[in-house]
Amino acid sequence: MELLKKSASFLLVKPNFSRLLVAALLVTCAVSASHVAYGSIRMEPVFMILGQSSATAGVIAIDKGVAVQDVAYADLKKKHIEDGQVLNYEGRIK
Predict the structure, then answer these.
(1) 3-state class (DSSP) for residue 3
(2) Considering the chain, what is the average pLDDT of its residues?
(3) pTM, 2 dp
(4) What is the DSSP secondary structure assignment for residue 29, as one 8-state letter?
């Protein structure tokens, strides 16, 4: 369950199909979410972050020669932190 909490956003865009059929597909607009969650996801900043995250995952997959489904979340998290992306907001909400 802890892994799901850490990588839920990546799981939204990473299809779980057979790697023989789809080895390089990341879906940023038709994410797997309830209608309630999709109401928040459809905000433009979230789509921009999904796009950046998908592109980063694609580059990692190409560099490592693996399918996008096999990109390790630890590698993706490391690159996002290097790029300055906020993964967990720990500040005060006003």
Answers:
(1) helix
(2) 76
(3) 0.67
(4) S
Residue type, 88: N
Residue found under tokens 């607009």 = 29
C-alpha span between 1 and 6 (Å, rounded): 9
Which of 20-24, 25-29, 49-53 is the most confident on average? 49-53
Count of CB atoms situated within 10 Å of the CB of 57: 22
Of 27, 29, 33, 1, the closest CA to residue 14 belongs to 27
Buried b (16+ CB within 10 A) or exposed e, 67-93: bbbebebebbeebbeeeeeeeeeeeee
Q: Is the pLDDT of residue 14 over 50?
A: yes
Q: Cα(92)–Cα(94) distance, rounded to whole angstroms? A: 6
Q: Over 80: is that where the pLDDT of 79 sits? A: yes
